[in-house]
Fold this protein.
Amino acid sequence: MKMFVAEITHLKKSFDGNEVLKDINIKLEKGQNLVILGRSGSGKSVLIKCMVGLLNPDFGSISLLGKDIAALSERDLNVLRKKIGFLFQSAALYDSMTVRENLEFPLHGSKEKTRKEIDALVMEMLKNVGLEDAIDKFPSELSGGMRKRIGLARALMLKPEIILYDEPTTGLDPITSREISNLILEVQKKYNAASVIITHDVECARITANHIVMIKDGYCAAEGTFQELSESTDDWIRSFFNQEK
Amino acid sequence: MTTIPVLPNHKLPVTNINHPRQSFMRLAGNFFTAITRLAAFNFKFFKEVLRPPYEFKVFIQQAFLVGNKSLPLISITGFIMGLVLTIQSRPTLAEFGAVSWLPGLVSVSMIREMGPVITALIFAGKVGSGIGAELASMKVTEQIDAMEVSGVNPFKYIVVTRVLATTLMLPVLVIFADTVSLWGAYIGVNLQGNVNIHLYFLQVFATLKFADVVPAIIKTFLFGYAIGIIGCYKGFNANSGTEGVGAAANSSVVYGSLAVFLIDMVAVQLTSLFT
């Protein structure tokens, strides 16, 4: 029996009368990499921001790890957020903090771990992304790809059950993009975390996706595996996948 | 009777935008919206400041940064204020043969009004703009969102600590600036005269009353609070893009300085009622 860690039902979201998401229905299985594919401005980022409560949906429900996020108090939502990792499009590293402090930040306020355990965890996460040497650097000293890797390391600090990636390869060269995509795959294998990967990068989708949902005009226009969608006869889907060929 | 359509600002018909009544309605609408939002922001501050967990470490760090950042500028300005005020006041007092009142006059002017207001204005320029720009930049680069998804309350972590730091550090800086300005005034007095340090400070403290010092210090807490909360509000609600960062920094200084004058005006009225 399939076990779902996230379920989105009839989600609607609009801004100033402009309906961005009209009816989104998505289910995420445990340990699955789900890629949300769509054109820029199709509301993909809005969707994952709704998932972590950064934006409130106008209609519909979002259930994460069995909890309806709309029904949670601020405190309970923060507890739930500790089980979810989020990699922002711009990595969103704290400029005033070093890489070490950035990685320690998700543990802020927690007294469960000793200093030694925190140091070991920071090193483990930096090793995961291959950037142990950057530990005392500031974000301004890092390249775009390195920032994304550190952002991923920070998202993994609490060993989340769900990881949300917002355009993980945007703004990176093809080689670094591939490296980040492979890293997402490694993370899935190592921590058995379910992931939602928002992207318009078909190559990233090819490497990472177990399942793909395509968003068009605020609706889930198509879904399937990479293989199924790339062989589709639909013009719109083909126009998306043929850009690679 | 003319009916004025109620539309969101961006939907106002272009042809009517300069109609005086509609322009006035739009301005009034924006003004009251901003006031309501600022009031809600203040209310949230008082709600969060009392609720644990307390970010004591971040508050200490911010208090150090805020004080340390402004100290050199405030020292220089305080010294110059005292010196210049003394030099400028001397000829007028000399006309009445009242040069001996110079230490008393300068100390009352500095402690009551010039020290707090000028220090607060410099503080608004230096610290208020810094807070506005920093928070706006954090907002634009999604750092505030990143805090929120980490399960950390960004309002408590960023806003409460900074506003507390500005509220408590400005009075300290004002006391320091007042002290430095009295030394500046001492040098000013001795540029064209010869008053020993003992006599100078004796005259200063003989002139100053409780009613000069305490209300002046109390109002600096309000100045510090206003500068901090306006900087945070502007930064926290900045529009996207680099333009938003610049606008937040700019409006933090403008509205922070305006708030200083408004609070000062009210404080002077209140003080005069009780003295």
Notes: The two ends of chain B are 53 Å apart (CA to CA).
